[in-house]
Structures are given as C-alpha cells and as structure tokens.
Amino acid sequence: MQSFEIEKLVAEQAKSGRAWLEFLRVPSLSMGVYHLQAGQPDPQKPHTEDEVYYVVAGRGWFRAGAAAQAVGPGRLIFVEKQLEHRFFDVSEDLTVLVFFAPAEGSGANASS
After folding, report:
1. CA–CA separation, 77 and 79 (whole Å)
2. Distance between CA 74 and CA 78 in Å, rounded?
3. What residues in the chain have per-residue pLDDT under 50?
4. CB-based contact 95:40 (threshold 8 Å)
C-alpha cells in the first residue's frame, strides 16, 4: 500500500518548479499533480491513455473536443485517450490531480 497527502504533493510540485509532478507509477495506472498559474497556457497534447482530472483548487475552463465547461474545486473530468483537450482562461491558480490508465505513455507502446 502507498498513501499520499495532497498538501505534501502540492508542496513538492511547487518546489520542483515544473507544472507536472508524477508521484505514482505502476503498469496499470499513473498519478500526478498538475499546476497552472492564472493566465498560464496549457501546452498539453492528446494522450495515448484514458485520463481523469480532479480539480483540487483554482478556477478556469476546460475544453475536450468541441465541449467546454467552467472548472473549479471538486470538478471531476474524464477524457478518453487521443481526444484533444486542455485547460484555458485560468483565472485562479489551478491545481489538479491527474490519473492515467494505464500509466502515462504506456499506450504509445501498445500495438493498435
């Protein structure tokens, strides 16, 4: 078993100076903290794995395909693999827990 405290993960991500901090990786799942400052663009590209976002703090908008919606604390979003998506118009620093299944990048190695 592994156990994590969100406050410690967020502090570790902030200390890293990077927007993305992966904190768990097993073959079937990876998890990380993603942070965007207010006004910062989200450079993500579609992923080869299904993905779930859980907004911990902050506010902004999220687009997946043609659909867009406002996001804030408590919002849970599922994005299927290969779908174009990103956060935009981030009005308050945004902190998000991200879950990939299977682990991020592993789908790129799978045969189609």
Report:
1. 7
2. 13
3. 111-112
4. no
Instruction: Return the pLDDT at 107.
Output: 78
Rounded-to-integer distance, Cα 85 and Cα 62, Å: 7
Give which of 80, 34, 40 is closest to 55, Cα–Cα. Answer: 34
Q: Which of 27, 77, 81 is nearest to 49 (CA)?
A: 81
Q: Where are the beta strands (DSSP E) in 11-105?
A: 20-26, 29-36, 50-64, 67-71, 76-79, 85-101
Q: Which of 66, 47, 42, 37 is nearest to 104 (CA)?
A: 47
**What distance in Å separates the CA atoms of residue 22 and residue 26, rounded to the nearest whole number?**
11
Exposure of 19 in the CB half-sphere (CA atoms within 13 A): 12
Question: Would you list the domain boundaries of the chain?
Answer: 1-35+48-70+99-112
Predicted confidence at residue 38, as pLDDT, reads 98
| Residue 96 near residue 78 (C-beta atoms within 8 A) | no
